[in-house]
Amino acid sequence: MGFVIPLILYNIIITTSIVLRLLSSSNMSKITDWASKDGSFHRQVSRFRDWISSDPKSKFPAEHNRYHLYISYACPWATRTLIVRELKGLKDIISVDIVHWHIKENGWEFRKEDGATGDSLYGFTYLKDLYFKANADYVGRYTVPTLWDKRTETIVSNESSEIIRMMYTEFDCLVAKKYTEKDYYPIALRSQIDEMNDWIYDTVNNGVYKAGFATMQEVYEKEVLFLFKSLDRIEKILGSGKYLLGDQLTEADIRLFPTIIRFDPVYVQHFKCNIGMIRYNYPNINRWMKHLYYDIPGFKETTNFKHIKKHYTKSHTQINPHSITPVGPIPDIEPRDK
Ligand SMILES: N[C@@H](CCC(=O)N[C@@H](CS)C(=O)NCC(=O)O)C(=O)O
């Protein structure tokens, strides 16, 4: 009998250590851990890459009330798709649900509070439930925007840069002429838009994340310097034209706006992108941003500063462990004619 108690103790110790190991390894792959071991942030390549088409015989034909967008007001990539949905008159054609601003261990959550809508299609609790409904074996992150097909009950696309391009033209047979006339990706400017998208995506749209999620000093410094070099370049470009490519609003502006509108309220302090502020150091970018926000329907309507500020500051606890949301800057964006 003398060996029974040591044996029980031994078993308890072994079991506890296994549980602790499991807990710590699941901790390491938490959904809210964003940087890799090299201290850099690498954005996942989107997995669902189908296309809606104007061709009625295609796999995903453009139809009234067939597609549904799941978005977050906090997310700059999702906001692009909301902006284009407004600009192209698709509000009555593509329905929308808005996730709650707080991302936790299970990813984006559906909650009917604070301006979030809940999941109006299935009443799911998490965005990930949709990913598994679309593909029970799905492995990857559960990201917004998610473009859902109500007919075949699957995800068409979770890549914002492609969703906005589908919206430019594929639904044209269903909207009024004033919307079909709007071309945000005109053939004559395509190569210039693509070229601009490349460096702006890398150093600005994704650049703020690469600076903010860096877990090594030298990685952060490298990224933040690239970012401000690009902002200086954009400032110069907007000094000689109303928009990034002259006097026509294009995709390049649409893709830049969600990053710039978040810059002073969030990226300056939360992502340490604080070499300058848009309102004090970049007068041309500031004027351009205010023009889009105040003068062009679709930009202000899709900007929700409450979701933006709360999401970043309360979800990224590795950056802001106490989840305190800074009060300033006040106001979130300057008045139109300051
Ligand atoms: N490539 C995607 C990126 C989307 C993306 O990263 N969305 C973020 C929010 S800003 C997300 O949903 N993250 C949740 C996660 O990674 O768990 C796109 O542009 O559509």
From TrEMBL:
Query: Which CDD domains does this entry report, sorted A to Z?
Result: GST_C_Omega_like
What is the protein's species of origin?
A: Neolecta irregularis (strain DAH-3)
Q: Does the UniProt entry include the keyword Oxidoreductase? A: yes
Q: SUPFAM superfamilies from the entry?
A: GST C-terminal domain-like, Thioredoxin-like
Q: Which GO CC annotations does the UniProt entry carry?
A: cytoplasm
Its recorded reaction(s) are: L-dehydroascorbate + 2 glutathione = glutathione disulfide + L-ascorbate; RX + glutathione = an S-substituted glutathione + a halide anion + H(+)
Instruction: Extract one GO molecular function annotation from the record.
Output: glutathione transferase activity
Protein name per the record: Glutathione S-transferase omega-like 2
Q: Which InterPro entries match?
A: Glutathione-S-Trfase_C-like (IPR010987), Glutathione-S-Trfase_C_sf (IPR036282), Glutathione_S-Trfase (IPR040079), Glutathione_S-Trfase_N (IPR004045), GST_Omega-like_C (IPR047047), GST_Omega/GSH (IPR016639), Thioredoxin-like_sf (IPR036249)
**Residues that hold glutathione according to the record:** 108, 141-144, 159-160
UniProt EC number: 1.8.5.1, 2.5.1.18
Q: Where is this region: Disordered?
A: 313-338
Which domain of life, per UniProt?
A: Eukaryota
Catalytic site positions: 75 (nucleophile), 209 (proton donor/acceptor)
Provide the alphabetized UniProt keywords: Cell wall biogenesis/degradation, Cytoplasm, Oxidoreductase, Transferase
Q: Function of this protein?
A: Active as '1-Cys' thiol transferase against beta-hydroxyethyl disulfide (HED), as dehydroascorbate reductase and as dimethylarsinic acid reductase, while not active against the standard GST substrate 1-chloro-2,4-dinitrobenzene (CDNB). May be involved in cell wall organization and biogenesis.
Give the similarity note. Belongs to the GST superfamily. Omega family.
Tell me which residues are marked as the site Lowers pKa of active site Cys.
267, 312
Which Pfam families does this one have?
GST_C_2 (PF13410), GST_N_2 (PF13409)
Q: Where in the cell is it found?
A: Cytoplasm
Q: Which residues form the GST C-terminal domain?
A: 186-312
Give the UniProt record's GO annotations in the biological process aspect. cell wall organization
